[in-house]
Amino acid sequence: QSQFVESGGGLVQPGGSLRLSCVFSGLVFDVYAIGWFRQAPGKEREGLLCINIRGGTTTNADSVKGRFTMSRDNAKKTVYLQMNSLKPEDTGVYYCAARRGPCAQIAPAQFGSWGQGTQVTVSA
């Protein structure tokens, strides 16, 4: 079964930056829109950003606008999440997942091929 493997998480101080990577194990990658999601402690998983097959990005999460960006490298079957100006409320497990079709509302239920996630902790 195709899925993602996320990496790059860790402990970072407030105001710092991290770059997460997500590698897809399936044979075909460039037909999928890819989303980044976050699950904070005690909260539901939320969609943060999504990139479509043409490289256009969408974000529905006001909390990360202007701070987080994502990109994709189809040759490497990899998507990246660049996180700047990190805040303690950015703490959580970060996941990526895929769907055929547009990014739409970046709702977790519309995406599949979930990885195990990577932990990001923002703390002084």
How is this structure best described in words?
0% of the residues lie in helices and 46% in strands. The protein has strands at 4-7, 10-12, 18-24, 32-39, 46-51, 57-59, 68-73, 78-83, 92-100, 118-122. Strands 2-10-9-4-5-6 form a 6-stranded mixed sheet, with no helix packed on it. A hairpin with a 6-residue loop joins strand 4 and strand 5. The mean pLDDT is 94.
Give a short overview.
Helix content is 0%, strand content 46%.
Strand-pairing-aware structural class: mainly beta
Please write the string of helix (H) and strand (E) elements. Answer: EEEEEEEEEE
Number of helices: 0
From the spread of the alpha carbons, the general shape counts as globular
The proportion of residues forming helix, as a percent range, comes to under 10%
Terminal CA distance: 39 Å
Which percent range describes the beta-strand content? over 45%
What ranges have pLDDT less than 50 throughout 5 or more consecutive residues? none
Report the average pLDDT across residues: 94
Record field, number of beta strands: 10
Strand order of the largest sheet: 2-10-9-4-5-6
Output the radius of gyration. 13 Å
Biggest pleated sheet: 6 strands, mixed
Entry keywords:
10 strands, 4-stranded antiparallel β-sheet, single chain, 6-stranded mixed β-sheet, mainly beta
Itemize the secondary structure elements and their pairings:
Elements: E1 4-7, E2 10-12, E3 18-24, E4 32-39, E5 46-51, E6 57-59, E7 68-73, E8 78-83, E9 92-100, E10 118-122
